[in-house]
Design goal:
Helices cover 7% and strands 34% of the residues. By secondary structure, it is mainly beta. The longest helix is centred in the middle third of the chain and has 7 residues, at 126-132.
Length: 238
Amino acid sequence: MISSFLCAASPFQLLHSSSNTLTVEFRLPKPDRQASFSQLIGIPAGSKPRVTVTSLKLVGSPDTNANSSPNSVSVAPIGIIRGQYIARIDVQPFHTNKIYEILQFQIDFDSPPIIRTTDRNSPYFEDFFRSNLLNYHQALNWRNVPQPTHTAPARALADFPQYKVFVSKTGLYKIESSDLTNLGIDLKTVDLSSIRIENRGLKVGAHVIDQNHNDYFDNTDGIVFYAEGLINNKFTDE
């Protein structure tokens, strides 16, 4: 036997949405004595939603201008899923001596301008977003998609001055400021962030000692690196 499950209609209805606002209507299901009702919405990154009740109707009263209790409607951010920031609307319709049958409220977001892209869908979570976010289409515009990082092209190695360092045996070596000045190098022109040591085209790990963290080769700075001596080579004694 095949069973079917009918889902009860949500008490929340989206009335209107714009770039930075959302208008929602809540209708109390009948009969229902549930203490509170919740609904998920998408919000802009870093937003602090502000909610304002614009109209309401009490059970058994035709008056739609009554004042709402301060905690009848609240909105609070709860987290992020796959780049989508999410908040929860909480409605508490039951209060002392009054029950809210209908509540209409507006949510304001301090959001950035909307920029539409074509790659914001998440193939694994889209069904969840579509089924659970009241403002799915509006929230899609705020989904945080990592953008490719554009960096300036690296300078070619040939653009930098190159020097050969001869080693006598395998071990740790340190290049000091005096080694460079003896070669006639002006230390003020040495940018420590651009230092690179290679052995036959392969990068060698090096530790740059920059005592005052100014990225320039001062008298107390140095470069420590590990080098392997070449066996049966005229430049080493191994």
